[in-house]
Amino acid sequence: xxxxxxxxxxxxxxxxxxxxxxxxxxxxxxxxxxxxxxxxxxxxxxxxxxxxxxxxxxxxxxxxxxxxxxxxxxxxxxxxxxxxxxxxxxxxxxxxxxxxxxxxxxxxxxxxxxxxxxxxxxxxxxxxxxxxxxxxxxxxxxxxxxxxxxxxxxxxxxxxxxxxxxxxxxxxxxxxxxxxxxxxxxxxxxxxxxxxxxxxxxxxxxxxxxxxxxxxxxxxxxxxxxxxxxxxxxxxxxxxxxxxxxxxxxxxxxxxxxxxxxxxxxxxxxxxxxxxxxxxxxxxxxxxxxxxxxxxxxxxxxxxxxxxxxxxxxxxxxxxxxxxxxxxxxxxxxxxxxxxxxxxxxxxxxxxxxxxxxxxxxxxxxxxxxxxxxxxxxxxxxxxxxxxxxxxxxxxxxxxxxxxxxxxxxxxxxx
Length: 415
What we know:
The protein is of the alpha/beta class. Helices cover 29% and strands 18% of the residues. The protein contains 13 helices and 18 strands. Strand 12 and strand 13 form a beta hairpin. Helix 6 runs parallel beside helix 7, helix 10 crosses helix 12 and helix 10 (299-309) packs parallel to helix 13.
């Protein structure tokens, strides 16, 4: 019996001819990423590490430091990278949300395994990488040993068919999948099919990232020409992509007709079986609109937001906050005029960080407020008060809603 993408990667890194669901395998890890929170909250300087070339450190969640505790983590991180000669250090000024930094610096490579302390590490699955968020103790162990273990889960295959409309984004595709099929706990997700070629890399990254919200283990995309061009531009070479066998065994194969999809929104609480097309929601006011996060703070997301906002104004009583996913995205968006368009419309552009997405700083919502966000999560209390409501949508929908003051189908806002 053939293997899925994730089974191919795990078997290769375990030195085995094959693996199948239910087996536990010990694998070599190609890249391990530490984030600032690890140094701020639970850091013990190790006496040795496995390989400094297989390690990266990214300052991302609390940048610039909003608390004394976070500020104390910075010197620990700087001492660590200096002591062990770690070249891949993305300090303040080179920083960004770790999954964006991983992508733009070629740390996620096809056919390889990547581990990080953040739960949205599955974002790198867009690059045909076996990427997974693990606890800080396990990541510390990988840093020291170079290995970890996984139990091989069954795989759900999503076969993408048809051509994606320009008005539909990766967020909309994911929210449709989450609403129709619900959670995928203890499952791997695999994406491919003839429609994949029409899904750009930034949308693939959004879909892969959001798989954490339906509790998937790994979320991997097939390698194709679109990915090859992206990797070439990032200077990534010498990789070996993993492709599923034609006789691979899947838990389920589900077809998604991209051509019939429209902008989606997830109602507060969860994304699983809790979404609907924006056109069917009805009139829902908003107090805050947020565009950013590892899922939707990419340059293309800011371009979409700027296009919707250009020549318009944020509605009275609405706060529009926009957080580029990295300093590199910030600088490029500034050069291209996107930040000017956002600011001219009345939006506030923040430093690149996780910030508002996880309810830490630069955009916490208060009791009774309603937030529409393109970030990753909408559970109670995620972005601040437990008495606030969070709706999840695409950057285009968030920008359109900021203009009107209520959750709005972006197709109804004149370009």
